[in-house]
Specification:
Blueprint lengths: L1 H6 L1 E6 L2 E6 L4 E5 L6 H29 L5
Antiparallel strand pairs: 1-2, 2-3
């Protein structure tokens, strides 16, 4: 099942910053926006990582529920 989780990918973008995270909560790619200040990039990146993690958790929970596996 962990292999199938790893195949799940989520791309979350905000203000030119992009994060791709897989179902094992590993960050596969990050793209920063050089037009933002360092502080802005840090804030947006934190937001993107948190949103991506939350969306992956929801996706995996839905898949587990539809497969009949309780959490």
């Amino acid at each position: 099942m962990q292999d199938s989780f790893k195949k799940e990918k989520l791309n979350f973008q905000d203000r030119g910053v992009s994060v791709i995270m897989n179902g094992n909560f590993e960050v596969e790619e990050m793209i920063l926006n050089p037009e933002l200040s360092l502080q802005e990039q840090q804030e947006v990146l934190k937001h993107c990582l948190n949103k991506a993690r939350g969306e992956i958790q929801k996706t995996l929970a839905q898949k587990m529920m539809s497969a009949g596996i309780g959490l």
